[in-house]
Each structure stands twice: as C-alpha cells, then as structure tokens.
C-alpha cells in the first residue's frame, strides 16, 4: 500500500461544530485517514465514545492503528448507521459528522481508478471488495442510461455525445478497462472546453457517484443521523459539489421547519409541533486553508442542532 496522506478539510471548524458534550457518543461517518476523528479524540472526555465508518479497506487499515479504547472503526457504508448502532445497543448519539466524497489517497493512487490524470484500472469503487467496478458497469450499460447518469450526476451538457462515443468505442474495440482510455474518449466527444477544467472531470464525477451510489447513501444516512441524534445533538456535513450540497441543504431546511399541518386544525401557536433541527451558519474554508489545500475551495460545511421536540 502506498503511504498517501489525506489533507483534512475544515478540521477545527467541523470538530468545533460537532462537539458540545465531551462525554457523549459521536459518529464519524467518513474516517478517511482520521483527521477529524483524531482531533475529536483529543477533545473528548474519558467516558466518551467515537464510532467511525469507512467503506474503504485502506481507510480501515489506517483506523486500525488507533488503539484508543474510546474508538471503534466499522467497515461499512454510513448508510448503515442505524443498523450498526442498534447492534451496539446505541439508541442516541451526541453528534454525526459526514465529510463526503473521496479522500486524497483514493484520488492520488492511480490503481484506485478515480483519476483521469494518471492511468490506472477503471475501478472507482470506494470499497473494491463489493459491487461492480466502473469498467464492469461501462461494459454493460445502455447508451440511454449512461447519458442519464452523465447528465444528472455530472451536470454535463455533452452527456449524450459522450455516452454515444463510449458505446461506439466499446463496440469497436471492446470494453474500456483503463482510466486513460475513458478520459480520451470523453475528450474526443466534448466540444467546448471549460477553462481550467479537464474535459473528463464531469464524466468521472458522474460515474463515481453512480458506482458508489453516493447520493442514495447520503439520503439514507441523513435520515438515520436525525433519528439517532439526542436533543442538543449535532449533525455536521461537509460537501464538495452542488449535487451533494443540494441534498444536504434540502434535508436540513425541511427539518428546520415545523411539520405541515391541516390548515384548519384548531391548534394554538404554542401547541404546534416545533421543528426538529435548528440550523447553524454554513462555513467555507478560509483563504489560508485554500492556499494550503486547493481541494478545500469547493468545500461547504452545513451543520444543525437537534431540538428538544
Ligand atoms: C473526504 S474523505 C474523509 C476524510 C476524513 N475526514 C479525514 O480527515 O481523513 C471521505 C471518506 O469517506 C469514505 N466514504 C465515502 N462515502 C462513504 C459511505 N457511503 N460510507 C462510508 N464511507 C464512505 C471514503 O472512502 C473516504 O475515505
């Protein structure tokens, strides 16, 4: 395994937003290389607990180096938060952190197949031990479904042309197996270049989101987190692109409003059900952090607090 480091985004800010009860039970849904978890452990009390999740076997191996008895790593999707907590007899937690997307080690290791910059096998799974790789999916997908995925998850204007080029190339030369092959086919189909952006950026993002079911799992995890939070508990989510952020924003907004009632119900204002969440201000990385870590530029952190209702 290469020793690749992840540069944690909004490290202090996320931990400050999450930690309010030093003896609570916390969840880090995206351990990565543990930047947030490690800082949290330095601030938590002796009786606290931190349960971390990651799908990636390499993240799991990194987490297993932590010998702190308050810490536990679970090799699972954060979509399984509720089941995993139930198995541990945990009904409520003080905070849930989700730092979404891929880690720098995943992007920088060409063998993982996430990068269009370095050639590698076309994999893109966060957990290569489960499910279908990008190459396997691209070998069987229809042009119509591929167009839809590239359009919806990549917000790519040339989705149709790209899907057509991928299917034509597959029919002519056999399935695509390398990231460079995919990047070249995409580049040949994209007619207008976006300044400073590789033409394959949007397509790679789309395929990665699809292969890892990122948006579906995020939706499940947000609902599970809300159900697990104790009154005062915090939900902190860092997202890196508009599709993720839209899901988070809509979810938080929905639960920060009082549930809708029949308009004519004879209730007094004081009897109306209160919202489940109180929103905190959203936060972006500082100019200093962005200079040090350009990936922080697109990060947006939203957080909220569970009310007592
Ligand atoms: C941005 S990194 C997190 C970095 C981490 N906060 C740190 O400071 O090192 C995202 C991590 O979440 C993991 N991940 C993404 N989606 C996941 C999911 N649905 N379930 C579990 N882990 C996931 C990825 O494998 C990756 O290691």
Write structural notes for this entry:
- The chain starts with 10 loop residues before the first helix and ends with a strand.
- With 309 residues, it is of the alpha/beta class.
- The protein folds into two domains: 11-99 and 214-306, Rossmann fold, CATH 3.40.50.150; 112-212, Orthogonal Bundle (DNA polymerase, domain 1).
- It has helices at residues 11-18, 35-43, 57-63, 81-87, 104-108, 134-140, 143-154, 159-173, 179-189, 201-211, 214-228, 242-255, 287-292, and strands at 25-28, 49-54, 71-75, 93-99, 229-239, 277-279, 283-284, 300-306.
- Strands 1, 2, 3, 4, 5, 6, 7 and 8 form an eight-stranded mixed β-sheet that branches.
- The radius of gyration is 21 Å and the shape is globular.
- Helix 2 (35-43) links the parallel strand 1 (25-28) and strand 2 (49-54).
- S-adenosylmethionine is lined by residues 6, 8, 30, 32-36, 53-56, 59, 77-79, 99, 101-103, 126, 217.
- Its EC number is 2.1.1.199.
- This is Ribosomal RNA small subunit methyltransferase H.
- One of its GO terms (cellular component) is cytoplasm.
Q: What is the structure about, briefly put?
A:
The chain has 309 residues and is α/β, with parallel strands linked by helices.
Keywords:
SAM-dep_MeTrfase_MraW_recog; alpha/beta; RsmH; rRNA (cytosine-N4-)-methyltransferase activity; 13 helices; 8 strands; binds S-adenosylmethionine; 2 domains; 15% strand; DNA polymerase, domain 1
- Shape designation: globular
Radius of gyration: 21 Å
Describe the sheet with the most strands: 8 strands, mixed
The CATH architecture of the largest domain is 3-Layer(aba) Sandwich
Between the first and last Cα atoms, what is the distance in angstroms?
48 Å
N-to-C series of helices and strands: HEHEHEHEHHHHHHHEHEEHE
Identify low-pLDDT runs. Answer: none
CATH C-level class of the largest domain: Alpha Beta
**How many E strands?**
8
Number of discrete helical segments? 13
Helix content: 40-55%
Mean pLDDT: 94
**Percentage beta strand:** 5-15%
Bound molecules: S-adenosylmethionine
CATH topology of the largest domain: Rossmann fold
CATH-defined superfamily of the largest domain: Vaccinia Virus protein VP39
Class by alpha and beta content: alpha/beta
Count of all domains: 2
